[in-house]
Each structure stands twice: as C-alpha cells, then as structure tokens.
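B., you asked whether I could sanity-check this one before it goes into the benchmark set. Here's the sequence:
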Amino acid sequence: ILPQTAEIMLGFSPDDVQNQIGLDSYLDLLVRMVIVFGLAFELPLLLIALNMTGLITGKRMLGWWRGMIVGLTAFAAIATPGGEPISMLLLAGPLAVL
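And here's what the prediction gave me:
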C-alpha cells in the first residue's frame, strides 16, 4: 500500500519539479501506516473477545452494521495520509468485510 500511496502523492507535483523526500519523513509515514493498519486489523479480535465474554451479542453487532460502515470509513479517512481515496478504501474495505 505504501509504494502506491507514495506514487500517488508524488504524482500531484508538476513534471518540471523534482521531489525530494527525506528518509526521516518516509520512515515516519511508514511507521504511522504500520501502526494504523495493525491497530485497525485488531478490531475483529476485540469484537470476538467481547462476544465470547458475553458483553456484546452477535445480534447486537448486526444491528450496528450501518453505523459501523460509516464509522470505519471515517476512521480510514482520518487515519490514512493524504487526500486520495485509494489508501482509505484499502483500509476501510477489509475492515468492513471482517
């Protein structure tokens, strides 16, 4: 996901401008993306644990599906860098399926 995100973000500059990306800013983006995607994909495990303890039932979770889709999309829009929808959808899509 990160190479495509970097390519899209760098594609916004004009052709006659050379982009200079520092290693520290690239690594910062990499670490943030790994943390966000890692935490986001722990959400299904949290929901399974809550279901197994009896705090939340499966029927109750099914009743929340519309709000969860909106919430996951909003989370993905905030968590992913830049304004392009590709990385947002790459985060929100699998979360919605899980």
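One thing to flag: The helical segments are 2-10, 23-40, 43-53, 58-63, 65-79, 85-97. Otherwise nothing jumped out at me.
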